[in-house]
TrEMBL record:
One of its GO terms (molecular function) is iron-sulfur cluster binding. It comes from the Bacteria. InterPro entries: FldB/FldC_alpha/beta. Belongs to the FldB/FldC dehydratase alpha/beta subunit family. Keywords: Iron, Iron-sulfur, Metal-binding. This is R-phenyllactate dehydratase small subunit.
C-alpha cells in the first residue's frame, strides 16, 4: 500500500475493463465513438456531444476472425482492434474513426467497413506534406468532413464555440499529463512503470473531466510525499505503444524508472497543445503540422533521434529503450536511424520487439537484464 494505492486501483479497474466503461457511457445516454491510432481528433468527437473512446488493440486477445481479413503477420494492434469489431465487442460504438497514417491502418479501415458494417466507419486522411499551407488546408477540410459525419450521428452541430471549448478542455488534460509525467520521474518508487502507463492509458476510456481530476489528485498526493531517492536506472522509452504489463514489469524488476517517453500512445498525445489563438480546425491542423519525432508523420530530416538525445540529457537519463512494435513498418524504418543518433551521442540504447499477442517475454527479460548491467557499468 502506498499513498496512491486507492486511486491507482480505480484507474487500473478502468484499463482492465474498458467495455464496462463503454456500457457506463451508453447507460448515461451518451454516444461513444471509437478513436483508433494514431492522431484522431478527440476534440471534434467531444464537440459533437459524443465520447471519444480509444481503440488501440488489446493485450493478449486471441486472434481468429481478423486473420480472414489480414495476413497473420500484420501488427497485433490492428489485428486485435479488428477482432474486437468482428466479435461484436465494440457493437455499442456509434462509429469507428480510423486514420490512414500507415499501410496497415489503410487496410484496417477498409476491412472494418466490410467486416463490421454495424459500426459505421469514418475515414480520416492526414496529408503527407502536413507542414505546408496546402497540407494544413487539406487537413482542415478532412476535419470538417469528419465533423459533418459525426454531427449526423449525434444530431448535435459542431460549432466554433463547442470546438474551442473542447480544445481548451483537452489542452487542460494535456497539461495535467505532462505534469504527471514529470512527477512520475521524481517519484520512481511510488510510480512504477506499470502505474505510469495505467494513469495515461485510463484516459482513453474515461470522461476527460473525470480523468483530469484523477491525474491532478495523483500529482497533489505525490507532491505531498517526501522527495524520493532513486539508485536504479533512469530510462527514456520510445515506440508506438508501451502498453505491455510483462515488459513494464521487467523494467521494474531491473530497477529501471521511466523518466520520460517518446511514445505515440503516451506523451506524443499530450506533448504539444492545440493552439487556442486561431480558428479551431486550423489550430488542430497546425498542431499535427508541427508535431515532430513520430515515425508516422512525414519527416525528411528524421528529427526523432536528435529529440531523444535532448530528452535523455534534459531528464538526466541513463539510456533509451526502443519498444519496437512487431510488424510495424514505420517503426522498423526509424529504429536504425534513431540508434545511429543515440550511438553518436554515446547514449546506451536497446531495441526490444513487443507484440500484443506475445505471451512470454523471456528473451526480452534477458536482453533487458543485460542492458541494466550495461547501464550499471
Ligand atoms: S503505425 Fe505501426 S503499430 Fe500503428 S497501426 Fe501502423 S503498423 Fe500498426
Amino acid at each position: 500500500m502506498n499513498a496512491l494505492t486507492d486511486i491507482f486501483e480505480r484507474l487500473q479497474a478502468v484499463v482492465d475493463n474498458p467495455v464496462k466503461q463503454l456500457d457506463g457511457f451508453i447507460r448515461s445516454g451518451k454516444k461513444v465513438v471509437g478513436c483508433f491510432p494514431e492522431y484522431t481528433p478527440n476534440e471534434i468527437v467531444y464537440a459533437a456531444g459524443m465520447v471519444p473512446f480509444g481503440v488501440w488493440g488489446a493485450e493478449g486477445r486471441e486472434i481468429s476472425e481478423a486473420k480472414k481479413y489480414f495476413p497473420p503477420f500484420y501488427c497485433a494492434l490492428a489485428l486485435s482492434s479488428l477482432e474486437m469489431g468482428l466479435d461484436t465487442a465494440l457493437n455499442k460504438l456509434s462509429a469507428a474513426l480510423i486514420p490512414t497514417l500507415c499501410d496497415t491502418l489503410k487496410c484496417l479501415g477498409q476491412n472494418w467497413k466490410s467486416g463490421v458494417p454495424q459500426v459505421p466507419f469514418i475515414q480520416l486522411v492526414h496529408p503527407q506534406n502536413r507542414n505546408t499551407p496546402a497540407g494544413v488546408a487539406f487537413l482542415v477540410e478532412q476535419y470538417k468532413k469528419v465533423a459533418k459525419q459525426l454531427e449526423t450521428l449525434s444530431g448535435q452541430a459542431v460549432t466554433e464555440e463547442s470546438l474551442k471549448n473542447a480544445i481548451s478542455l483537452f489542452n487542460l488534460r494535456r497539461a495535467a499529463l505532462r505534469e504527471f509525467s514529470s512527477v512520475a520521474a521524481q517519484y520512481p518508487q511510488t510510480i512504477t512503470p506499470q502505474m505510469r502507463n495505467t494513469v495515461i492509458k485510463s484516459g482513453y476510456f474515461m470522461d476527460v473531466l473525470e480523468h483530469i481530476e484523477a491525474v491532478r489528485e495523483i500529482i497533489a498526493r505525490c507532491r505531498a510525499l517526501p522527495q524520493e531517492e532513486w539508485s536504479g536506472h533512469r530510462v527514456v522509452v520510445t515506440g508506438i505503444i508501451a502498453d505491455s504489463p510483462s515488459i513494464l514489469q521487467i523494467l521494474a524488476d531491473n530497477n529501471m524508472a521511466i523518466v520520460a517517453d517518446e511514445v505515440a500512445h503516451e506523451s506524443r498525445q499530450f506533448r504539444q497543445d492545440v493552439p487556442e489563438d486561431c480558428e479551431p480546425y486550423e489550430a488542430m491542423a497546425r498542431q499535427i503540422a508541427e508535431l515532430e519525432g513520430c515515425s508516422l508523420l512525414f519527416d525528411p530530416e528524421k528529427k526523432r533521434g536528435g529529440m531523444l538525445v535532448d530528452m535523455v540529457k534534459k531528464n538526466n537519463a541513463d539510456g533509451v529503450v526502443y519498444l519496437l512494435t512487431k510488424f510495424c513498418d514505420p517503426e522498423e524504418f526509424d529504429a536504425p536511424i534513431v540508434k545511429k543518433h543515440l550511438d553518436k551521442a554515446g547514449i546506451p540504447s536497446i531495441i526490444i520487439e513487443i507484440d500484443q499477442q506475445t505471451k512470454t517475454y523471456e528473451q526480452a527479460r534477458t536482453a533487458l537484464q543485460t542492458f541494466a548491467d550495461v547501464l550499471s557499468a
